[in-house]
Design goal:
By secondary structure, the chain is α+β, with helices and mostly antiparallel strands. The chain contains six helices and 22 strands. The longest helix is centred in the N-terminal third of the chain and has 32 residues. It starts with a strand and ends with a strand.
């Protein structure tokens, strides 16, 4: 259940001795309206340390519940399996790199040179055949050779022309093998091979798992794929398998629940006072839940998170995760507020609210209309009044 608290710098001194009438002095003072909540301390930064690759646990260097510092080795992993994968990736990278190099220098490759030689030979044969045909035709016209020899050379010449065309097509196909999509595909395969090799090399560098920051180690809870048994040397690991939870003890928060009727009065950034283990701390409201809790019962409750400002390290204050915390969220603060006892408020025949007021002992009482503000533990806030005295019935 939420509570409403008010902090006032002064109270009303009873102005006794001012005749038979009962007057109280009023003057502007600071008015603070707070919402009281109860919550628990939690870490403001928490990470799950997981296995970086498939393998086995070679050695465990820490224990659950141990405090560690940033960079401290936590465990070592067996790298035999990752080495196999890395060598396979290296072989693929070398193969694709050689292919890309070959394709990029394809115009000067032996395949293109061989096609050029074949085309040159075909053209030379065509030229020689043409010269022989021309000479045979002249001899035929002089009656020295028979028509059959001319026909034979013409057929040979046609075959030689087709051989030249075939050689030209072969040269075009050979040159195309090192251009366009073929080269683009090879370059993409090389990029993939390089990326896989780099990823595996980076995984191998994580064979010693280290703490990313100072904190407290704990076993993975039910919120993740929990390791039901303590970690043991030789235990088989799969990539991404959660191993330990590291909680930062120097960035603490308080998680609390607020009823639906009060959540509308909250806003992120509000000032919060917290009492934890006898220490008075301050903080700021950092999160307001959008979804209600799964609690059973009537009415909706929402999670709120308060970031604490610790004056010293948490260990010096004796703070621990899970400790209870009493919160006071500052809803309103007014530096010049007037608060009256409820009985000082009166109503006229028209239903308007007023008080009987005088500025000092020598002034005559008069009716002063006022508007009512918020109600607090010490009374009712009113507007339209200044310093002086008000009469009680």
């Amino acid at each position: 259940m939420s509570l409403l608290g008010v902090s006032l710098w002064q109270v009303w001194p009873d102005a006794a001795g001012q005749g038979t009438q009962h007057w109280v002095q009023v003057q502007p003072q600071r008015l603070e309206s707070r919402l009281g909540l109860v919550g628990k301390v939690q870490s403001g930064r928490q990470v799950i340390l997981s296995a970086p690759f498939d393998g086995a646990l070679a050695s465990v260097l820490v224990q659950e519940g141990q405090r560690v510092v940033a960079g401290q080795p936590l465990m070592r992993l067996d790298t035999r399996q990752i080495h196999i994968q890395l060598r396979q990736a290296e072989a693929e990278r070398l193969r694709t790199r050689a292919l890309v190099t070959q394709l990029r220098t394809w115009p000067a490759s032996p395949e293109v040179a061989r096609s050029l030689r074949v085309l040159g030979a075909a053209r030379a044969a065509l030229a020689a055949g043409q010269a022989a045909l021309d000479e045979t035709r002249r001899l035929f016209e002089r009656g020295i050779v028979a028509r059959m020899e001319v026909d034979s050379l013409e057929q040979l010449q046609q075959a030689q022309r087709e051989a030249v065309l075939d050689a030209q097509q072969e040269l075009q196909l050979t040159r195309a093998r090192g251009q366009g999509d073929v080269l683009a595909i090879a370059e993409m395969e090389l990029e993939n091979a390089e990326a896989r090799w780099q990823a595996l090399a980076a995984m191998r560098e994580q064979r010693v798992l280290r703490a990313p920051f100072d904190g407290l180690l704990a076993r993975v809870g039910n919120g993740g794929a929990s390791t039901a048994l303590p970690l043991q040397e030789g235990q088989a690991l799969t990539q991404g398998m959660p191993l330990l939870v590291l909680s930062d003890l120097e960035r603490l928060q308080v998680n609390a629940g607020v009823e639906e009727r009060d959540v509308g009065s909250l806003r992120e950034g509000m000032e919060v006072g917290a009492i934890i283990a006898g220490h008075l701390l301050v903080g700021r409201l950092s999160q307001i839940g959008q979804q209600p809790r799964n609690d059973t019962g009537q009415g909706a409750w929402y999670d709120v998170v308060v970031d604490l400002n610790l004056p010293v390290v948490s260990s010096e204050l004796g703070l621990r995760l899970g400790m209870g915390a009493q919160l006071a969220l500052l809803l309103q603060r007014r530096e010049q507020a007037i608060v009256l006892p409820p009985e000082a408020l009166r109503r006229d025949e028209a239903g308007r609210t007023y008080v009987v007021f005088r500025e000092g002992d020598e002034q005559a009482p008069r009716k002063v209309p006022v508007t009512v503000g918020i109600t607090v533990a010490q009374g009712v806030e009113v507007n339209g009044l200044q310093s002086g005295f008000v009469q009680l019935p």
